[in-house]
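Recall the central idea of this unit: under ordinary conditions, the amino acid sequence of a chain determines the structure it adopts. In this exercise we apply that idea directly, starting from the sequence alone.
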Amino acid sequence: MGKFKTSVTALAVVAALGACSNQNAPDKTEGDSQMPAATAQAEFDNVLLQEFDGPYGGVPAFESMQLSDLKPALEKAMALNLEEIEAIANNPAEPTFENVIVAMEKAGDELGRVFTYYGIWSSNKSSPEFREIQAEMSPKLSAFFSKITQNEKLFERVKAVYESDELDSLTDEEQRITWLIYNEFAHNGATLEGEAKKRYAEINQELASLYTKFSNNVLADEENYVTYISEDQLDGLPDSFVKAAKSAATERGKPDMYAITNTRSSMDPFLTYSTNRELREQVWRTYYNRGDNGDEYDNNEIIKQILTLRDERVELLGYDNYADWRLETRMAKNPDNAMDLMMKVWPAAIARVEQEVEDMQEIANEEGADITIEPWDYRFYAEKVRQAKYDLNSNEVKEYLQLDKLRNAMFYVAGRLFNFDFTPVEEGKVPVFHPDVKVWEVTDKDTGEHIGLWYLDPFARKGKRSGAWATTYRSFTTFDGKETVLASNNSNFVEGPEGEPTLISWDDAETYFHEFGHALHFLSADVEYPTSHSGVRDYTEFQSQLLERWLTTDEVIDNYLVHYETGEPIPDELVGKIKKASTFNEGFKTTEYMASAIMDLKYHTTDPENIEPDTFEREELQKLDMPEEIVMRHRTPHFGHVFSGEGYAAAYYGYMWAEVLTADASEAFQNAPGGFYDEELSERLVKYLFSVRNAMDPAEAYRKFRGRDAKVDALMRDRGFPVPGESDSDN
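Accordingly, the structure predicted from this sequence is:
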């Protein structure tokens, strides 16, 4: 993420997705005014402000971070950054790319470093004390960023460069970042005047506080609602899950019980295997009611306020609704195009759900269960159908999915496609923020050139937000001296008992590869400027989704999927079953995701005065003929992608948009002479789809890789859905 981009997308940064920084202060160039002394790199007592020190071009001082330093560090860093911005805005010299755009790219070193630590506290080691600071500082940060985006003199200088004859003489990347920066100003209120500009800034501050409260409410429900069960309630649960649940309960002071934590990684396997239907319903309701319990952590009123404020803010800019504003700069361009894609897939998805439910109901009837399939039954009976139709037992597959082996498989793929080598860094050489975190050095296999470091924080724990994500502590740039990459992957796997490997599900293995795809996107970057790392949301998931496809390649299966006890490779017969069942339960997976994506667009194209979240969610899903046996993957009251910040707001559809690209690109590899390890295609993959980041328009980059635009037909085939005008014999 570029320096300026970091500034104008504060809320995403505050949501702890990390930030990169360049460690050198702006140079004084001919015709520039002298930058204030405060911006020169100085020695700070506060470690959060200090330059990254130590090996590998410097690393964050995670071992020295103290929460008491955070607030003063943020305040000092904001002050320093504003001085830099004022110097750029008030420079009497004629605006040039060098003294405006490059100067902005160099600004904000201290703030970028503080955000790195802020992100760790927010995502990896949250606490009540941190949340107090977060609640206090979020509106202050928003006000700070508004001072930059609404700095009229600064915008006029950016605009002058953007409209100057000099632009034509710049490199393609320099032209693009100039456009990105200009557009970010224009898109975020820089053109407003008077009361409208003031109100825009006020709204941003109000939203910042609401986003923080929303996410903290969800985290509170995840921490407070733990289901404890006794030994006689373990029927059906795999040994690995039972051991992990025992450890989780012991950590929480209940050594005689078993803890089902209120996270997807715990809920999902419990609903898949537990034979206790009453408990399944309890765990299901606990999970899907996060943020919707009518207590002090209820998010419904907050959602209404967020939607109202977002609508008011874009109205100031002349847009009909928030989605129009949000998608203007995305690949989809407008909500109609995004919804059109969804509606091409939705009918096939819910039709497949109907078939899946019929299969499940048939088994339930045969067993004399005397039930009608409910949402808390779906995973349980889907597993029975899987075993009946494909003779595939998910728990049997899990025995071949060891976390460490899968990590080595990812390293193998990175070596084949990107020519990367991963070497463990000696413990203690690089500071980490928790003992679970391990670090690897990434180098070029042929030359030995240092590429960067890869941090891995794999396990769930209290204070760590749910889900899986990737981030950077520093991104690759060359415009002011070469900066190497510090990338990180973070997950919430339930750690295996001491001395035993951690076993994960097939879905979790795909997620592991997915997030590593983001890390490879960071590590393979070959761009000059920080702003080139700014993402296009309906494109940035593509690279990571595509990397999931290498999990099922023969090279990975044959060498890394081995039994955790015997060390024997996964049998060919079981592999065949996995591949045969690759589109199994696709109705469920597609429908639960798309319901969330469609509702996201509906929330942001509807007058918020007409929205009561719970009612709106229920009524709109009914209009879509949403199957009663499935709920949204992220119900509205805990839909953090959309309501704890703005990264995915009106843009959650982007996963599906990226899936179209993924399916289409996957078919290219399937048809290549060398398959998924085809050298010529892999070279184009790295050159056009990974290394360029946002230095090239994503649509153009994809065409350079594929030779044409992506086609939605590939997605339909990929999911086993019928393609209009294509018979089975065509596949």
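The beta strands are 227-229, 258-260, 420-424, 438-444, 450-459, 469-474, 485-493.
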